[in-house]
Amino acid sequence: MSLLEIENLTVEFGGLKALSNVNLEVNEGDFLGLIGPNGAGKTTLFNAITGVVKPSDGDINFEGKNIKGMRPDKIALRGISRTFQNIRLFPKMKASENVEIGIIRVPQYSIHDAILGLPKQRNKDKENYEQALRHLEQVGILEYKDAYAGELPYGIQRRLEIARAIATNPKILFLDEPAAGMNNDETKDLINFLSKLHKDTGITIVLIEHHLDVVMELCKNIMVLNLGSTLAYGNPKEIQSNPDVIKAYIGERRQKTNV
Ligand SMILES: Nc1ncnc2c1ncn2[C@@H]1O[C@H](COP(=O)(O)OP(=O)(O)OP(=O)(O)O)[C@@H](O)[C@H]1O
């Protein structure tokens, strides 16, 4: 059984079919890339899986259970975590506090314990802080633990988002354009860091990215969406030489980036 199975998924916004009969299987440990032109439906697919938008048709099975239409918080508790295209950190909170928010998803002590500041609450707070530091270390930004998120360099903020997402201890991680707005050095750092994260933790990752070098280097398989439908699926070599993909997307990206 696959970890995630998407069957004939359709998402409509008014008269617009953002996704049309999309099928996808993700196995445990996969590193899957999701590419395609602007408006192809990539983020909509993430939004449907994470419960942010309601599909009009099809099924989304995670660990054999249909999660289609479930609330985002319930889906997150099943082990599905994500980052967003636009950074969504709490800028006036410290880096460590942003990660603690990822850890404290379910009440860990009663309101009574919290109001009275009982040892159970104090111990849990200390454990959460220590765990947050471990995640900051995991993504290589421990030195920024006391810095305010909004004051961090862009590439570090992106890593902090990933630290917060993995703090929920997910079984699958969806990354929506983690290299967006990064310069070449930051992009190279990101490739190395994601490769190490995947190797060290074995976590299943699905990655949307327009920086094709990131996708080609990291992903074992790639799904190409175009106009809400699957245009192609294959390994990086197959995708780069697929004439339909070159015509619909890669050719245009090469022109834009002079690759
Ligand atoms: N909440 C929404 N309401 C109405 N239309 C939407 C909504 N979200 C997405 N769309 C539309 O659905 C289509 C797919 O959008 P989506 O954001 O999924 O594309 P994408 O492949 O992620 O694009 P990009 O690479 O630019 O991020 C687009 O035409 C978009 O305008």
TrEMBL record:
Q: Which residue ranges traverse the bilayer?
A: none
Mind naming one GO cellular-component term on file for this protein? plasma membrane
- Which SMART domains does this UniProt record tie to the protein? AAA
Q: Which UniProt keywords apply?
A: ATP-binding, Nucleotide-binding, Transport
User: Which InterPro entries does the record cross-reference, listed alphabetically?
Assistant: AAA+_ATPase, ABC_AA/LPS_Transport, ABC_transporter-like_ATP-bd, BCA_ABC_TP_C, P-loop_NTPase
Q: Which residues form a coiled coil?
A: none
Check the record and name the SUPFAM superfamilies matching this protein: P-loop containing nucleoside triphosphate hydrolases
Reply yes or no: does the keyword ATP-binding apply. yes
Start and end residues of each ABC transporter domain: 4-252
Calcium as a keyword?
no
One GO molecular function term of this record is: ATP binding
Recorded protein name is ABC transporter ATP-binding protein
